[in-house]
Amino acid sequence: MCGANLCVDLADPGNQPLTVADGALLVDAPSDTIMVIRTSDTTVVAVSAICTHAGCSLDFVPATKLLDCACHGSQFGEDGHVVKGPARRALRVYAASLANNVITITL
Most CB within 10 Å of its CB: which of 5, 72, 92, 103? Predict the structure, then answer.
């Protein structure tokens, strides 16, 4: 945590997947589990990693750029929108930025 936000230091070896485009990492927040995805050299997105259908955990698949739910097959885009059901509601999206080798997620 850094103030009211959640910060991910890319210098920390545990956060190495986020140092390259299409890298992703699950980050625990006080009231959610967040999937942070490095979409390019300069941008990141952060969405809830909990499926809106039945509460299962999502996995990011770099090849398709989708978040997959292994429980019932729902798929979500990197921006949280539903690509394939049974989920009907989009994922919660968090504001995220990258500066000075630190990703800041507004909670």
Answer: 103
> Residue 14 in 3-state DSSP?
helix
Q: Hey, what are 101's tokens?
A: 């080798």
How far is Cα 92 from Cα 64, in angstroms, rounded to an integer?
A: 20
Start-end of H helices in 35-75: none
Residue type for 77, please? G
pLDDT at position 101 is 95
List the CATH number of the domain containing 14. 2.102.10.10
Residue 57, both tokens: 């955990």
Q: How far apart are CA 43 and CA 54, in angstroms?
A: 30
Structural domain containing residue 18: 5-106
Mean pLDDT by 10 residues, the chain (107 residues): 90 97 96 96 97 97 97 97 98 97 96
